[in-house]
Amino acid sequence: MLFELWKHPRPEAPVFRREGQVVVASHRIARQVLADRERFSAANALDAVVPIPAAALRELTRHRFRLPATLANNDTASHGRMRERFGEVFAPAKVEALRPWLGGLARRSAAGVAWRLRAGEVVDLDAAVASEIPLAALARLLELDVAATAEVKRFSRAALELFWGDPGPERQLELARIVGPFHALLRGWTREATGVRRELLEAHGEDAATAALFFLLVAGQETTSQFLTLLLHRLVEEPELLRAEPGAVVEEGLRLLPPITSWRRVALRDTEIGGVPVAAGDSVLVWLAAAGADEGVAECPMRMVPGQRGSRRHLAFGAGAHRCLGSQLSRLEAEVVVAELAPLLPRCEVVAAPVSDPNLSFRMPSPLLVRFR
Questions:
Q1: C-alpha span between 290 and 315 (Å, rounded)
Q2: pTM of the full predicted structure?
Q3: Under 8 Å CB-to-CB from 360, ≥6 apart: which residues?
Q4: By the 8 A CB rule, do 126 and 320 touch?
Q5: How far is CA 42 from CA 34, 37, 50, 281, 318, in A?
Q6: Best exposed site among 77, 128, 191, 325 by fewest CB in 10 Å?
Q7: Are 160 and 222 in contact (CB under 8 A)?
Q8: Quick one: which of 195, 138, 158 has its CA closest to 60?
Q9: pLDDT recorded at residue 193
């Protein structure tokens, strides 16, 4: 099933067709497709995988929901200017300056988890750690006052299910009733924006500025949050991995557990990919999870070996003009979380492992419940 493609780590071929998609599993070819803007466009990146029915569309329209070309789905002339402005927000120096604050936040989270575990509680590491830290860091960089973490997470997961999941018509309407009102709230935040978000509003208009905030608030924190949940699960199950440096652990996690398992492109003209004919308008699914475990990427491509040669050659953050702007922030967040939780994780056991719902591009894990052994 295409929505659970990532559960099958070994592809049937470097390039193949599945359920109307041209699937690219080869690391080399995936990088080529992502970088080739002459043959492939990102215009379909935010299109709903399952067409949204009229009732759900009416609900979204009622709240003035729109997703014009902004960042991930933008191949127009405005993309470079928008990316440049947001690039300043995620500039390496600004991200690195967050390290002491992020370290303190992760330390407090770890202390709270440790206290609860010592008291005999079962703790959800997804809610206690993975959900809190990425959202707090993104809000700090974007100058957002985001206090209600649970409400933002409810909205962001609803958006990921509505656009990349496999919901039926009734569920789509339920999701639209979550996404629509929150999108209206984002529009209000956009009108009151400062800094780079104000510049984007004045240069490109309210719809584009709101859409950019929508994508950053959803994908910008949810990807790291989901990655942290899955990485922490792996580290509880295999505590020997913690003997390596946190940065090396994170890179191997990104290679084998990328938060975005696949991403879409649309063919601009008749062409071929790896010998497979592709017609103009065909959807191309770049299978990032398979690309990271491709032969030749790392010395032991299917095994998590922190520090091994080739560990950083993954495509967890994409490639080309649309490569993730927040890659350094995501790495930093994961490193500080691993470093602060490292003393606790070997003493834990899993009570309930995270289980992922069907989704084309996002892993969508359920809570990770642990207790002291």
A1: 10
A2: 0.94
A3: 2, 3, 5, 49, 164, 165, 166, 261, 262, 264, 285
A4: no
A5: 9, 8, 18, 12, 12
A6: 77
A7: yes
A8: 158
A9: 83
Which residues on neighbouring strands pair with residue 28, listed in sequence order?
none
The predicted-structure confidence for 131-176, as pLDDT tens digits, reads as follows 999 999 998 988 887 766 778 889 999 999 999 999 999 999 999 9
> In whole angstroms, what is the distance from residue 266 CA to residue 40 CA?
5
Residue 93 neighbours by CB under 8 Å, 6+ apart: none
Number of alpha helices (DSSP H) and beta strands (DSSP E) in the chain: 14, 10
| pLDDT cut 90: percent of the chain above it | 77
Q: Are strands 369-372 and 348-352 parallel, antiparallel or unpaired?
A: antiparallel
Q: Return the half-sphere exposure (C-beta side, CA atoms, 13 A cut-off) of residue 167.
A: 22
Give me the residue label for tokens 């989704």: 359
Q: What is the DSSP string of 121-173?
A: --EEHIIIIITHHHHHHHHHHHT-----HHHHHHHHHHHHHHHHB---HHHHH
Tokens of 166: 């496999």
